[in-house]
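Here is one chain, start to finish.
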Amino acid sequence: MATPHHQTFDRLVNDQTGFVGRVAYTFYKNDKLAWIRGFHDKHGRAPSDDELALYFHIGIDQARLDAYLAEAERTLNEFIDLTASEEIRRGIEAYQQSDVVKRCENILNGSKKTTWQAVKESLLSSVLSSFIITGLSVLLYLGSVAVFDDFRGLIHRLTAPEPVSATARP
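Its structure:
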């Protein structure tokens, strides 16, 4: 007697389940092989077609198929997490060993100053900025005094009465 057609593959692998369904079908096949081995160990013979049909039609219900799908999804997620974390770890190690990190460390190590060196630079910059500000202040003051004198002269000329000439006619 031929083994009756069953729909386990079609029920596990479809457009909705995709690759997860294929992995779930692998779990189903592993359980089926374990059942056949257990049957052989218990009875000393392979199961008949009728016994296999009972396994297919009674032992595999929708709850069992959902359990296979859930186990497949969990297994794939664990694999993805493991693979992704390994890739991230390798990426971090590659970055730490890269030339960019070494150059940044060299720049940081070369730019460290002693306290006295920093104080000297700060004092020098303060003195220089004081001289610059003082020089600009003096120039502005002198410029304003000169402008003020020019402005006072202009006002004096504008407000001074014009001399009356002898040839002027009324």
